[in-house]
Specification:
Blueprint: E1 6-10, H1 16-27, H2 29-32, E2 43-44, H3 50-57, E3 62-69, E4 76-84, E5 90-97, H4 106-121, E6 126-132, H5 136-144, E7 148-155, E8 165-166, E9 172-179
Parallel strand pairs: 5-6
Antiparallel strand pairs: 1-3, 2-8, 3-4, 4-5, 6-9, 7-9
Length: 180
């Protein structure tokens, strides 16, 4: 897709159902297996829900960035949660691209736009994310885009169904950072 075929905007509450559907399709179940970002082999259950989307949209220092077709269809292509963390760094997460469109460059453009928002609109100098430790291919995607492995890990919240139902017992979150 060319630069003039995608437009970016902040999600509103009216986008909640579409964002939930996109995130679920990118990470869970058989639909996620069409793309390379699926977590279907390591997690069952939900990836997000209306409660989480509404909570994110209710915070002043955050947004869900939406990428959609610039034509009349306005088709939702991708989204990402970006926010300002308590320590003043940026946060990037819930990154989802329609599985049938993965590998076509949309994800790179969404990541770049999220970094631009963090840097230019919020004047942040660092952006951070957490990636499930066994997702080496995904971690390497971010490393190729300038993110550094910090050596810090956070425990996976086993027993909290809001984060999914683990199929293995060796999960944690690896923290990646990038200077903006």
């Amino acid at each position: 897709m060319t630069d003039d075929t995608i437009k970016f905007r902040a999600a509103t509450l009216a986008d909640t159902d579409a964002v939930v559907a996109l995130v679920e399709s990118a990470y869970r179940g058989d639909s996620g297996r069409r793309g390379w970002t699926t977590e279907a082999d390591i997690l069952d259950g939900r990836r997000t829900g209306p409660d989480e989307i509404e909570s994110v949209l209710g915070k002043a220092q955050g947004m869900i960035l939406i990428a959609e077709r610039a034509d009349a269809s306005g088709e939702l292509l991708a989204c990402a949660h970006i926010a300002v963390e308590d320590d003043g760094s940026g946060y990037f997460g819930m990154f989802s691209v329609n599985p049938t469109l993965q590998g076509g460059g949309i994800g790179k453009r969404v990541l770049a736009e999220a970094e631009r928002v963090a840097r230019e609109q919020w004047n942040l100098s660092v952006i951070r994310m957490s990636v499930i430790n066994v997702r080496e291919e995904l971690i390497e995607f971010y490393v190729r885009r300038g993110y550094e492995r910090t050596g810090r890990f956070e425990p996976f919240p086993y027993g909290d169904a809001r984060f999914g139902l683990p199929k293995r017992d060796d999960l944690s979150f690896e923290i990646l950072e990038k200077k903006l």
